[in-house]
Amino acid sequence: MTPMSGRFGGDSSRDSLQPRVVMLDKDVEQLVTRFLVRKHAELDRLRAALEMSDFETIQRLGHDLKGAGEGFGFPELSILGAKFELAAPARDTTQIAVCIASMERYLTRLQVRYA
Amino acid sequence: MLSLQERRPPRPASTTMRIAILEDDVSQTELLSHWLQLAGHNPHAFEQGANLLRALERESFDALVLDWNVPDLSGVDVLKRVRQRLHSSVPVLFVTARNREDDVVTALREGADDYMVKPVRRLELLARLEALSRRGQHGQEQAEVLELDVYRVDCQTRTVLRNTAPVDLTAKDFDLSVLFLRNVGRLLSRGHIRETVWGPNAVVTSRTLDTHVSRIRNKLGLTPDNGWRLAAVYRYGYRLEQLDAAASQRATQTDDHKAA
What we know:
Chain A has one domain: HPT domain (Four Helix Bundle (Hemerythrin (Met), subunit A), Up-down Bundle).
């Protein structure tokens, strides 16, 4: 079962307003639920780190997101993780803010269905 | 991600791998552990390199899966110590998001056996680990029929022949025999033996384990006068060794001397 594909990170596209539906096997439900709870919590950590100019934390969280996202069925999160990881050492606060907003939008619209 | 069709039947105890994972990201640890468990292996997770190194002093594993960026010691530091200080040849697979060529080269030159860049795919990870295990055990570990000296082990029919005569073994004694015969010369920790033969959640006392080992030693004749030694290693576990003629004679004389 593969996640439904869709455009990612486009603010103005109609597609970005639609829920992102991802189909996964039932037996990973608990695993994925815990993963998504952690990622929601990391949004706050990312915002706080950006405010404090703590680029090391942003880079580390991005690194983890890049490594784990696709394995859980969310390749978009891996792409975002890579963007955080690049933007952090460059201290690119604009790009980091865009990535945080994209991640929040993705997680908010994400609908995971288990079968 | 996971597919119901891809699931395998339960793995025979003798081909279960005990795998240590060094990974500080909880999500990644959970995912890797889940994949390995689904495939019938026994994962053990460590968040810090120092903890893994301590475990390696008292426990054996069939493979290590190392992340690079972890707190305290990095995966490469751990790898160096595993190879240089512990003199261990345990198969090591790096699983890391570091994808630069010089990272890959460094890990391989320090003694890693394989390298995967995150995000990793489940079936590829399992296939690579199984390939490492095959190479580490001379291609015998997956074989349905094992032939060693006077022993012929058929994992399909779960029978052991010694000099063509069948040996009467319980199910656990059979699994234990196969584990040792597939790992000749290798020191196996008690935890490793318990987990592989009885399963990860079984409560098995040291005495029970010793009793089973003693029984297969007698039933299979794994003694120096037969060219074999199934030796206990104090506070660690057991090692099955095949002795050459001279060593066999010396060991028999030592045993006779002890008995006298």
